[in-house]
Each structure stands twice: as structure tokens, then as C-alpha cells.
Input
Amino acid sequence: MADEAAIGVLTSGGDAPGMNAAIRAVVRTGLQHGRKVIGVQNGYDGLIDGAYRPLGARDVGNILTHGGTMLYTRRSERFLDPRRQVEAVQRARAAGIGTLVIIGGEGSIQGANALAGHGLPVAAIPASIDNDVFGTDLSIGVDTALNTIVGAIDRLRDTASSHNRAFLVETMGRHCGYLALVAGVVCGAELVLVPEQKCGAADVLAAIRNAHDRGKTNAIIIVAEGAQCGIGELMRAIEATDVGLTARASRLGHIQRGGSPSALDRLLASRMGVKAVQALAAGQANVMVGLDGNSVRLVPLAQVIGRKRAPEDELFAMVRTLAL
Amino acid sequence: MADEAAIGVLTSGGDAPGMNAAIRAVVRTGLQHGRKVIGVQNGYDGLIDGAYRPLGARDVGNILTHGGTMLYTRRSERFLDPRRQVEAVQRARAAGIGTLVIIGGEGSIQGANALAGHGLPVAAIPASIDNDVFGTDLSIGVDTALNTIVGAIDRLRDTASSHNRAFLVETMGRHCGYLALVAGVVCGAELVLVPEQKCGAADVLAAIRNAHDRGKTNAIIIVAEGAQCGIGELMRAIEATDVGLTARASRLGHIQRGGSPSALDRLLASRMGVKAVQALAAGQANVMVGLDGNSVRLVPLAQVIGRKRAPEDELFAMVRTLAL
Amino acid sequence: MADEAAIGVLTSGGDAPGMNAAIRAVVRTGLQHGRKVIGVQNGYDGLIDGAYRPLGARDVGNILTHGGTMLYTRRSERFLDPRRQVEAVQRARAAGIGTLVIIGGEGSIQGANALAGHGLPVAAIPASIDNDVFGTDLSIGVDTALNTIVGAIDRLRDTASSHNRAFLVETMGRHCGYLALVAGVVCGAELVLVPEQKCGAADVLAAIRNAHDRGKTNAIIIVAEGAQCGIGELMRAIEATDVGLTARASRLGHIQRGGSPSALDRLLASRMGVKAVQALAAGQANVMVGLDGNSVRLVPLAQVIGRKRAPEDELFAMVRTLAL
Amino acid sequence: MADEAAIGVLTSGGDAPGMNAAIRAVVRTGLQHGRKVIGVQNGYDGLIDGAYRPLGARDVGNILTHGGTMLYTRRSERFLDPRRQVEAVQRARAAGIGTLVIIGGEGSIQGANALAGHGLPVAAIPASIDNDVFGTDLSIGVDTALNTIVGAIDRLRDTASSHNRAFLVETMGRHCGYLALVAGVVCGAELVLVPEQKCGAADVLAAIRNAHDRGKTNAIIIVAEGAQCGIGELMRAIEATDVGLTARASRLGHIQRGGSPSALDRLLASRMGVKAVQALAAGQANVMVGLDGNSVRLVPLAQVIGRKRAPEDELFAMVRTLAL
Output
């Protein structure tokens, strides 16, 4: 009977702070619905390999405050092969997993959709610090990453303002400039360079000259990982001007993925975890849980797959206005 | 000419992290609209007393990252007198202030409405760590306060779990349990006591016994400032049980009001500051800027005054489920 | 044979951040010396009750970064009875514990001395956020507690300076003013009240008037838990003056005990844990590990017991000078 | 008269958290000795150019908590020329500066010695996050940098343990491995590579295989900036093994220089600032203030110049033991 089948839960793709909070919510809500919950380790690889363990309420105690994921995560090459997907579904069913919650980013949600196609009812929870998942205003991990970036850039500003210096700060975001743009607003950057817009050294020089003319003695330029201009080239261009700023680069890198999740990420992950289990328990499968304004809602996977979330125009305009 | 009149800005009531970010956004957006911006110090007292100073773009440099408010804030007794309100409007007009942005909580927004009644076009920005302002999903300062609470309770949990101890943690919230409820979800509390619900020692004992029976060796109980039961009484009741927990109280107090604002509070404050000035510049006065889902919108002051925002039922249910 | 006997380790008294780092260092250094290491849970109560578990290198993985103590801790009433102490030694020996490392504060070190008197070779490691243990410049937990206090008071300063307010901040320290005095220097307090000095409302009023005359518009007064004047009385005295400051109290409380240990506490705890095991392995028992300047040295327990560490006069003078 | 001459103060070289706390202590202690204090901006360049401003007690209010330096800092090429040094001394004297406090690292202290040689009495305060200044156990900024590194690596560990990953983390330290070594102890690194020791991919592979054989599923390797092996090469070597770890690099970079100073750095800087002024007031010039164990003492500049501080052997051994 479907009602007696266990709920499986796995994390997949790059880790994001709050994944553990989501796992905890899935487990405890599942138990409260009278279901067994089975954790799948190592993402889709573990689903194929049968790396399953039952999870009780105490197993997810004390994980709420921890970054990373207690179930481990991977990007699985093998799972791209549809034969492996079928195998995975069979193995999961054999272990008593009747429905599956997948916590991860864009690629992981595509994987969820593949499983749904092979007949395993799934619910996806978007977790990705890039905030590039379509169908949700916010993914798990974004808020913590932003606060980490804020902490880092506030530190760099100390040094920048002591030295009359321009810092070029690289944030994550290979295809999506959301993180960089919001960071630009909340850290008071002079300019933000994102993958979605063409940019070059001329833009940077104009921003710096402009800042200098308005009396600023230092500058923070935020460059998303996927922006269309090289940091080395930008540094040389800045130092070649006559505004008297030295240039330094800081690549924030993987520290953006870790850390104890922020209040908002813990709340969002908890809400999404509860909602995902409620959906599966009510037979509403093959959906993603999305944040729509202030509400957590279900979105059919079919509406999510293959679409890209782009940052709002409002953010571009705000960076310009507030850098005054 | 209205277009040439300056925009005034003041902060009023209890301080909240992000007020400075809102001031900065008001000043720079105002300047970009070609207006002069005048800062009013000491809240409504300063409006009466003429504590005005012009603010340029550089005057609000480096304040984005600071808690508190560079314009100082107060709860003004004098301003409750309508004659003082009229005086204040006259003085403001004489100083060239044509419109006024007020950043503050419920009482401050009532003050804004009074000014509007005396003919001064105003725009209010909700700032209050209690999140009790009607007409906005979120007020400035709430997210930072929540992260401060998370940091504090994560510390208390270290001690609680080392000692088999129950902590009764008092958060701010005299009339509104929002902060306590969200803190309960994001800190994994066993129980949350709020002003909106009757509660007593029996609830606390049941929660603790329940937690103990499920294998928990410590407990966090969150008590909003205005909850209807005394912490001393609760402590005695806990220690009188046979579950073997000692009880301690921690009143988080004023640390909840301070600190460098979180990424979300900086973003929210910036968006609201921009919107308030855009509204005044467009002649849309006597409004509050509210967050409605993901959008920043204008709400007529008349719809806000005298109404209370209550925490969502979803939060009450989540605390129970996730404490499993 | 003594060489083959296991090393026991326990934590006792109030918890302090860094206790886990010390446990880890004891376990791994013990293993490297070819010894078994046995963890004793619940402090001296567990020693009496036989709450023992062997600890391997992996059992102490990931605890370095956590506050509190994985072995739990208590203040044991029973252990004050010498018959219980003898029982405890017999039980420990029967379990193969040949020597014992005790991590705790003043009372715990007295307990260690009692065990030594009953023939169990011990080494004590001072852990106490009050820094009141004689024979060491610094105890484990002090530095983390200071950074927690700094974080809290930096927040309060935001509010104090926004409101022209005096904050009376109570820190831990029932008998010892060290924590309060250093907090006074590093947070820029106007005055510090400690148990070691007489004080009254007159001192506070003089400091506040003085600060006001020098142009300060807010004040932070730090009051150690054991200071000889009541905070309520001080608040009333401040509000009765004409300098125009409102007064608020903030009792920092138990958050001072928790949190991920600072770099210095992790280093100190690691050094002390290594040294304690080296001492026992070399047959140098019945000692406390103390920090003497930059070196970690052994101090005979007999020299530590019954003596009090007092804060340096230099600190009293510095608070006065730097509050200028 | 010497007694009536002003005390000058400048910061030089790379900025370090706590420089502002030292400036504040110099200013307020100077004023208490009845001296005028003059701030020199932009390091030695400003000394040459006459970028002087008098500093009162209020000018250094609120800087205690800020990273960076309110006096700005630079590495001055011009000042290497002895003719410029003579000019600087003449200009300083003409402005009433009778003695000078220099806050900075190794190169800055050499500059102080040069000024002393030209007849200007100086006192140096060591500030350098690398902790490479000879004659002091600790320089200002080291403790804050270590806590920043701890915060960053604790984040990376979340990701490393979620992915079975090895992180190669580059810390500052071009010539001195102190920061990397202590970071290794306090972050639980598997291995630390420093400029003072030969190292190669073989060491890294041995450490990782060793960790793997002991049951570890992730690894943190800390590499000081000046270590004798390239991170790219190390990464390729790790991924070529069969232990199944992926490798990632994280260069912490300039965030290590910034941030609000830790409690210890504020205390150290305050003590050193007080001592430097006391020395000059007592006619004990041409010294550096050093931390010797628990005491702040004066060291003749002649003993400091041209010597290097090396990390203690104890640290090398501890990394190995505790990585067990």
C-alpha cells in the first residue's frame, strides 16, 4: 500500500547551507504522518547503489545548525544514463521507498523529473546558493551565502579604505548574476558585473572615475564568476588610470557554500521540507516546492524544467542609484 | 514649487538594524531625483525643535553596515500633542522641507499619519524588530534580530546539552509573538510561548516530559516578552519534575536591537528607501512602503493605522511538528 | 603495569568553550603514546557511577569546533564526601584507568587534588570563563567569552548611541572581576564595577557626568556579577541626574559560556591537552597545566589549591585612561 | 621644551585589525600626559608631505571596534631615500612633533629606526597579521586574522565533509609560517605547508592517504602563501590518487586583513599604545613595544632590526599529533 511506503530523501549537486534543516523537516514531518523515512546517501549515486539508512527523529537532532548535508551530496555522472535511472527506481522500490524528496539545484531537479518519468513519485526542494532555479523566489542557501559575502566584503572595505584601493571581488554565479547583484546592493558596491550583461574594462574605469569624482577614495567592484570580463585585465586597467587607486582581487570561492545557515535559510528549508512531505502524503507528486512571495507553493516539475530564473531589473537600477 | 522642496527624513521609536541603510537609500535616491535631502535628528522631537541638517551623498557613506541610526531616535511624548504637530509642520516647511520620510514602528507610523493630517505629505517605512506593523510582510530589523537570536540560542544549546538543562529564553515582543515563533522554528525549540496564546506551566511541563520521552536530554523553551506566564514560575515548575533537568533563564534583551544589519535587512531597507522617495517624487504621498510577497508596494496610511499584524498559523504548527 | 593503564578524561563544573578541543588533544596524544583513553561522562558523578566509554581518534573528530563538552559536565555534590572519592578511585582502577585528566575550574581542580590524595595520579587543565584559577595566566574559555561579550556590547553600543542612553551590562564573574575589566578595556566602557573593589552609585554618576562633560552622548558601564552594587539602584541614580541619559540594563547571562571556541581557546586547549598527557606519560602527576607567559608549564596541585587569581592593576588603570 | 612637544602617531605598511585601537590608546594616553597628539596620515608618505592633523579624545571615539586604520597606511617608496627621511624629520619638528609612535610591521619598524638615526625619538608598535616581527610574542592583528581563518575553514569543512573532498587552503604568510601553523592546529588540518620547510606533493599525498586509512573522508591542507609548492600541482596529485577525494583550492586572500578586531587584539593594541606613550614620556625612546609572555616590555630597536621571528617547533609537532 502506498500509504505504508517509506519516504526517501536525498541531497544532490553542490551543497548549500540549510540542506540539513530541510532533511530534518522532511524526516520529522514524515514521521508525524506515520511514515518511515529513509535517507539516501551520496545523491543519485547512492540511489543507484542502495546507500540507504532509516532516519528517526533523533538522527536529525542537532543538524539544524550545521552547514553541508549529513546525507552527503554529489554530482552523479552515472545517473545521466536512463538505464541507471530505471535501476535506481527499482532498487528504491525494493527497499520500500514509495516516494522521494530531492533537495538540490537545477540539475538535481532535472534528475527528479527523470525519476518521475520512470514512475517514482517525487517532490523537489530547490537548494542552490546561485538562486538560479526557476519557479521559486528563493532557493535554500542563498541568504546564508549573501551574509557570508557581506561579512567578507565588510572586511575588505576596511582594507580598501585604509589604502585608497579598488577591490575586484569575485562571487559565485556561473550563469546567474543574482548573488552578485544583491551583494552589490547590500555591500554598497560601485559596480556589479554579471553574466547576463556585456561588460568590459571601460565600464569599470567609468565607475571608478565617477566614484573618485564624487569624493570616494576606494571602490568595491563585484564580479560574478560567469561575468564576461577577466579580473586580471580589469586590474591592469584600473592601475593604468590616474585616479590613484591600487587594485586587488579577492575570489571569495567556496567559503560562500558553507557556514551555519542563517535564520531565513533555516525557516525556508523547514517550510519547504514540511510542504514537500505534505504534498507527497496528499498524493500531489512530481512537483517542486517554491517560494512565491510569502507563501510556499507547489509547482509542477514540468513548469520548472529547462527554464532559467533571471535577476530582477530593479536590482540593476538599485546598484546604480545607491552607489551615488 | 513642490519639485524644488527638500525631502526630509527622520527615524523614530526604538532603533532597528537597517535604519541607516534606509536613510542612505532615501538620501541618494532623493539626490538622484534632483532634490535636496534634509536629515531630522532625534525623531519627532527634532522635527519640533528644528534639529535639521542637509545630507549629501558622502554624509551617508559607510553607514550601510552600521546598526542603530545616524539621525538618532526617540519616542517623543511632546509630539502626541496636536499643537506640537502643527508647530513641527510649520517649522519643517520654513526650513524648506516639502515632504517627509519617516522610518519607524507602529507608533511612529501613527505620527506620520498625524503629520499627513496637518498637510505635510509623508511616506512611512516600517522598521521594528517585532514585525508587528500591519501592511507589510516584513519590517526592517526583523531579520537581523532573528539572526542575533539564532546566534545566542546556538550558544545556549552548547551549555544546555552539556548539562542536561532546560533554558527558558526570553525574546523581545511585547504584543506580538512573531519573533519568538520564528526563533522557535529556526532554533529547534521544544515550545514557544507568545502573547497571542494562553499558556501556563502545564504546557511547559508537558513539552519537556514529551521531549524527555523522545530521548532528548535538554530543552529550549522560547518565551516572548509579553507571554502570559512568568519565567520564574516556569523554572520552579521544571525543576520540580522528575525528568532530571535543571532550569536556567536567559533574557536576551537589548542585544536583539543592535548589530550590523543582515544582507536581507540591508536589501529590504534599500528597496524601501528607494520606493519611498519614488512615491513622494511621483506625488503619491501619505503611504507606507510595505513588502508584499516579493514586491515592495505602497499602502495608504489609512489602511495601516490601528491594525495589528499577527503571526501566521503555519508557524505555530511548524514548531510543534519540528520539535519532534 | 602503569604504562599499559588507560588514561581517563573528564570535564567538571560549568562548561567552557574549548573543553572539547582539550578532550580531543588528550585522546589523540594519549593514543600516540600507545595508551587507551577512556572518557568519563557527567564529571565526578560519572566517575563514581562508572559512566565510562573508550574513546578512539574518530570519536573526537569534528568536536574541535563545538562549544560545550561531549562528555557532559556537572557540579557533583556527592563527590564532596571522601568515601565517594575512594569509591570513585576504586571503580576507575577496576575499569583500567591508571591516570586521569580533569578539565574544569577551581572546584574541579580541588576534586582532582582529592583524587590525588587517594592515590590516583591526575593532571588538571584549567577551564573557566571567569579566569579565576590560580597558577595560569589564562584558563580555557576566557577568550571566547570575551569575544562573545565584545559582540554583545558592540550591538548595545549601536542602540546606546542612537538613543543617548547609558547601558549597565552585567558580565559573569561572581568572585573575580577579570572578565569585566578586560571587557571594559576592549569595549571602551566608561567604568567597570568588580567584586574586588568597593563601588556605589556615586562612582557611576561621576563617570557618567565626566563622560558627558567630555562630549560623550552615551555610556557603557560594565558590572561584574559579583560587584557590590545593585543594577536597579544604579539605573535609578542615572535617570535622576540631569545629564539627559536614559538607562537600560542588559544581563548577558549564559550566552557567555557557549559558542564555537575562538582560535586562541582552541590553541590553548590543544596545547594544554597535549601537555597533560605528556606529563602523565612521563610520570609527572598531580599537577595542573598552566599558561606562564607564552609557555605551557606544570604547576604542582598543592601550589594551586586554595589560592585566588586576581586581575592585574594594569587593567584598572587602563580602563580609566582609555575611557577619556 | 621636549615636554611640551606633541606626540605624532602614524600607521604604515599593510593594515592590520587593531591599528585603530592602538591609535586610540596613543591619543588618549598622550592627552592624559598633558601632550598634544598629532595624527600623520598615509604612513611615511604623509610624514614627508606634512599630512598632519591634531587628534583629540573625541576624534578617536568609535574607532576601537573598526578594522583598518583611520590614519590610512601605505608602503612608501620615497621614504627609502635617506634624504627624504631627513626632510620628514625636519617637517615633523617644524609642526611641533617632538616624538613619534609608528604602528606597523617589519619594514615600518626599519623606517622607525631610520628616523631614530636622524634624531627623532620614536617608539614602534608591531602590527602585522603574519606575526613575523622579532622581539614580540604577538603582533597586533594576528589574533583577528586567525579567527577569520577559523571562520572560513569551518565553512569549508562543511562542504568538504559533504563531498568527500580535500581542500587546499592558502593563508597569508609570504616568509613566515606562523599563521598557517596555528591555523593548522586550531582548524584540525591534516597537514600544513610553510615557507620554513621543504615540501612537495609527496608529503600531501602521504598525509591524505594516512587520513584516509584512519577513516577520514575529507581533508584540509593549509598552505602558507610562501610555501615551496604550487597549489595547482598539489591538486592534480591528489586527484590522481585512488583514495577517492576530489580536490579544491581556496585562497583566503585579503579578507584575512580586515574585520572588527578580536578582544585579544583590542587588548594588545591598547596595552601597547599605552606603553609606547609612557616610554616616550619617560624619555625611553628608540624602542619597540613587545609582548613578552604576559607582559608588555620595551625592546631597543637595534635588537629588533634585521632579525626574523620563526614559529615554534612545538606547533609543527602539534599539527602532526592532533591530526590523528
